[in-house]
Design goal:
Length: about 250
């Protein structure tokens, strides 16, 4: 069966020292309380190697929050998928709405990034989701379908089987406004059906689809109880080990 996953997305928070401390706290908590799901920490690039070295890789996976859409060369300030791989990280968050909105990441760019992440044997945690106006206009199904089709549907079934999806309604990110469990289940089921139409039921059923957007210890259980919600991508609540563990403990 597909894997349940709780992944933290620290975004641009924590100095190196603070990040290593937080990762060690999470690691210690999980050593004492074996999680019933896969746990991943999405750190800034500069933390990756140190965090990967410090945590027990059986308990905690490590993710970059982005990578370059080029292999290597004269791209000042960029970090390649191969460089991420060399740190010991296993995942890359791709297509987060903040990357799409503030850094102009299009589905075409994300297609390139996905290919490079997979070529380096990393797991993409690929984010999709609509903005408020699209939800209010009833276009959210079309929006997520297009994001998936344009960035991911060139993949073979075998490669698609290596992708983790994260549905994150942009209106719920960092706003304290969570999608209701019914809203989450409705669109997660739609996403899974979209995958089934392209790759067949088996691939669709094996794909983990995470929910993200103001997920916290108080609402994680009811969100994760949905049959098509396989965990969460957690921003704000991943910055405190206790809160993050409260979400992990929902499984
Ligand atoms: P949030 O962020 O949990 O702070 O809403 C989620 C995300 O952006 O991944």
């Amino acid at each position: 069966m597909r894997q349940n996953i709780v992944a933290g997305n620290w975004k641009m928070n924590n100095t190196l020292e603070e990040g290593v401390t937080l990762a060690n706290e999470v690691n210690e908590i999980l050593k004492a309380n074996k999680p019933n799901c896969k746990v991943v920490l999405g750190t800034p690039f500069i933390h990756l190697a140190e965090v990967a070295k410090n945590v027990d890789c059986e308990l905690v996976g490590v993710a970059a929050q982005n990578c370059a859409d080029k292999v290597s060369g004269a791209y000042t300030g960029e970090t390649s998928a191969a460089m991420v791989k060399s740190t010991g990280a296993q995942y890359v968050i791709l297509g987060h709405s903040e990357r799409r909105a503030y850094y102009g990441e299009t589905n075409a760019i994300l297609k390139e990034k996905t290919d490079l992440v997979l070529a380096n044997e990393l797991t993409p945690i690929f984010c999709i989701g609509e903005v408020l106006e699209e939800r209010e206009a009833g276009k959210h199904f079309d929006v997520v379908k297009e994001q998936i089709e344009e960035a991911l549907f060139h993949l073979s079934a075998e490669d698609f089987g290596k992708v983790v999806l994260a549905y994150e309604p942009v209106w719920a990110i960092g706003t304290g406004k969570t999608a209701s469990p019914e809203q989450a289940q409705e669109i997660h089921a739609f996403i899974r059906q979209t995958l089934a139409n392209k790759y067949g039921a088996e691939v669709a059923n094996e794909t983990s689809i995470l929910y993200g957007g103001s997920c916290k210890p108080s609402n994680a259980k009811e969100l994760f109880a949905n049959p098509d919600v396989d965990g969460g991508l957690i921003g704000g609540a991943s910055l405190k080990a206790e809160d993050f563990h409260g979400i992990i403990a929902a499984f």
